[in-house]
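dumping these here so i dont lose them again. two proteins, back to back, each one seq then structure tokens. dont judge the mess
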Amino acid sequence: MQNVNPILATSPLMKLIQPENFIGWVYAIDYEFAHVMTNDLWKYRALGIPHNCFLVAASFDPQNLAQTPEEEMEIVLLRVLGSAKLPQDDDLVRTKIDHFKDQKSPTGTPDRELDDLTRSEMQFGGLKCRVLGTFFMDENELWLGSDLESFATATRLNVYRPHGEALSLIANYVDPIRRNTAREMAEQLGVKGEINPFQIGTVRYTSTDRLHRRNARAEKVPVFVQPADFLARRTAVLGMTRTGKSNMIKQLVSVVKRVADESHARIGQIIYDINGEYANANQQDKGALADIYPQDTVRYRMLETPGFRELRTNFYEQLNEGFGIIQRELEEANRITTDYVRAFVNLSLDEPDSQEQSEHKRWQVRVAAYRTLLYVAGFQPPPGLSVKFEASAEIRQSVQEKSRIPLPEPRLGLSLPQAKEWFLALRQANLEKPLKSSSGKDWVDDSLKTLIDMIAQRQGSAYISGFKILADSLKYHSPHRTSEVADEIYELLKDGKIVILDLSVGDARIREKVSTRIAQKIFQKSMEIFVRGETPPNIVVYIEEAHNLIGKGMDLTETWPRLAKEGAKYRISLVYATQEVSSMHPNILANTENWFITHLNNAREVKELAQFYDFEDFGDSLIRAQDVGFARVKTLSSPFVIPVQIDKFDPEQERRRITERKGQE
């Protein structure tokens, strides 16, 4: 029998065993569960045994390693699930009942005292624990297998409750393979240099934390996570309102920003801010993200507000985007039922090649008529907007004869009121005698005829709704924007900015559609870059109330499910927050790598969650414990769920970090 290697005496494996925290022995074990016999005195010395706490079991004596066979040099990691019944428990219960019957008063001394032997027997109890894995050493590295390789029924396993350094080793364990993989993945994502893990909180087992966190002998053990876990990954932040979801998202935003700053990488972040808590400062948070990162944050809103950029589209400038909104509105309102509306929605505003002069000139006239239609329909134009196009002297003369006012040449520019008069006169002249181009074709083609009929609200001599059918799209228009908002946001994200979409104000339907359009643009542009063989930018997308966007009934080809499912390969990370786990798309839940779970208020949500990893062990705790920030955390690098009290996001501390970093540059 070979003796243990002396190097093991100082190895991380030995640090997991703390003899002073001995709490009992394993009296039954299999591949899934271990049953532990413990004693009230041992529990007291180890500061209690909270529900869901970690325990470690080993067959060797850490004080006598020289006599330990090497094959026994392993430690079984356990999690306490609840109590277990010992064979003598029924007899002891009967003894307790008889003892209580002898009491003369609720607080008085019984006539018959318990003898020392009986009292000692009563102090023993059983614990049921889940086997989480096996720690062992290999090539001077600490490894954790996620199961038991074997077990000997007759082996005596001593059980300890880890504190301090031992608990930190367990809570922050990352196996060597995962550690190297995370480093390689970070390099692939453009993150240079060694990025240290960041603290998200401290270990917390139960809502009642008097002994294991507040006791003078207790030590709050920090919990760290790997930054690479959140890049090009999916992260779920689940829990009821006011239980710390927003605080967790702010922590993640600051961490990603820190990674970007320290590695000099550009990582764009976009937050779909449903309640306005990220874009605006409030007393509770002592500062909004925009105040902490003033040079790197751009805020958008549906309404014109100082400090915010306009989120809506300028229909006059972003022709195709605005026209696309009009088409969708007409389709959803079931208005595409007449010939002229069908002809209108099938128009093309795409600019042809300027080398094709005839087609390009027709396009200029069509765009001028379309902008005039917008003006007539009530879309506020940008200041000083005019339309320009070419028309022959013959066409201009025919139009002028039917006009009520003198009109300048269109190639020199027409104001929108002048353009309205010009196209109404054109329609009237063309009705009397079809106008021809120099090539003999109809100057007023089918597309132009549709537009000028809608301006006039006439088809022949019959009345039509015309421009009035555009009324439902008015709320999507802003005259202040000079570029398409989705394109502008994507460029900001490529530049590593934090973009906050304040969706707390404005029409709910508009918010949803604008949000989806931006997400679609992010996905499509990153995919196009990837398909070209180039490297897409790193982008992190945060969404609140995610069940409304990635519902379980949605088709996987729709924008949000597709971004959530496929975005990772295009370097798009997704952080989604919701309190309705069961309403989320199951494919998205199944592909989520990181989980932060706080209080859930019903068994249905917990049952849905119990399908993933070892969250089933925390079902009762998730329903009962409503403490803000008390989360159960499973990250990509962590082999099991860790119960954590999430640190409160501190804006002042983050400001100091930024100031210190700038001072070092």
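---- next one ----
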Amino acid sequence: MIVKMKKVFVMCMDEDRDQALDALRELGVLHVTQEKEPSGRNLDEARDRTHRATRAMNLLRTVIADLPSVDPADPAEDFDVDKAFENILDLSEKRARYEDTLKELRGELERVRPFGDFDPADVNALADRGIAVRFFELLGEDVPEWPENVTVEEFHNDGKKSYVAVIGAPEAVASNAITAKEFPMPEMSTAQLKAWEAELIQSIAQCVEAIQAVAPHAEIIEKRLADYENDQRFLEVKLGMGENGKIGYVSGYCPEPFICNVEDKAALKGWGLVIREPEPEEQPPTLIHYPFWVRPIKAVFDVLEIFPGYREADISIAFLFFFSLFFAMLIGDAGYGLIFLGLTIGARAVMRKAPHYPFTLLGALSLCTVAWGVLSGNYFGVTPETFAETAPPGWLAFLFQFQVEWLTVQENAMGLCFLIGAIHLTLAHAWNAIVCFPQLYAYAQIGWACMTWTMYCVACKMVLGYEIPVSLMVGLFSVGFILIVLFMTPAREIKREWIRHAMLPLSFISNFVDIVSYVRLFAVSMASLAVARSFNDMAMNIGFDGFWVGLITALILFLGHTLNIVLCALGVLVHGVRLNTLEFSLHKEMQWSGLPYQPFKRR
């Protein structure tokens, strides 16, 4: 349920702004909207401080993640938190510079590797004695014409390139007649480069160790970062307040159940207070109150980062029911469902402090998958058809007796998908009709529901070959068409909205496509079953004769089913979510344009 909001204006004397905002922050129920864009030197400094502290904290978290454990420091220990932020950033910048230099250095080492333990000092010493040396890189078997009276020494040849040194008198070696690609002489010897590499590695390790030394104080640093964020938010609200003479005011939205808290605080502090309903052009934030049994679906909304608008519908109950059904049908394997359930229980045991609702959702989805797998007779890709010529083991025969034969017929499964789609989309239009009634637009929604069932009949006849009475389809289409044309647009708006009527043929086709798109539930589950069967057959052809053969077979089964599970999970994200957030939401006329309710409060 989307909680109703009230527009609230809190007024105070100009000199009491800080006290008023501090009290509002402690109250923690007002979603503040800015009356003007906040700006100022203090705010810029606060944002910069928060930004640097956030960067430092993220770097510290990365380092802590690599540590097996961290013992918290003694709270009584004297520790300069502000200096720690700067030290972490300085150490991180040094580490980045060292790593960049190390990367370039290793590139240089790789470049001179063909010449072995090379030292430019030796070349310079020869030059002092009147002996010149130049280095060349030759491609393939192309060998240039070398000048007379020079010595050509090959250092390395890998079949594609060869590296040579040309040695001789300066005038001969410097000849312009040499057409080969010259290899630039390094500035340092190989030994010096390797020594520098070791120094850089040590310097990087020292930077990491210095950051790790701050890890025991992470909790104190986290609290200071929260203080910075609180100070920044306070300044943003203060500088974004409206003003009229000596009166300052802050505006925002407050959930209706908390209005009494604001009224009591205003009476206590002597504030001026105005409370009204949001105007149609205003966009209040959305606060959803989930019943305890629906709250698990919040995990999906959080992952997708989608939120209904304040004036849109809360479809969380429908989303939970149909998403659970889609999940079970797309996976379609009782064995996989048991694996998901086991992983969920194990993850919950490890992450005891995490919110409970994601694990509740995963547990429910796993149980739904197990139930659907039992009804369809699918256990890790093993179905009754696998034992077409032999009897299945006793325990499998017991499980297979719960199979519903009707679900194993392809036409029946596809028809069920079309039926689920028709029901799903009809729910959207019926919902719209109930919300809009007694407006005439409600009748247009009834017309769209009729059109949906018309397209369901067409899909069953065209795709599955069902015998659908033509009179039924014509009747549904006629009723739907008349209701849509007459009531989809108010008479006074037809001139402006005529394009919607012109696009109706495409809308009808789109309605048909939406119904047919639900067949993906069948297609993806069949693809998953085919992959599982393929790996099972591959493994059984190898068999379990001997330890190593059995190990290879087990490895094929493990990797094959793991890959299939990953593909199934992707299928749920792509198809199971899409049918709710696209097909259903489009028919429900939802845009997911909500702004989440974020009250002004201390972190």
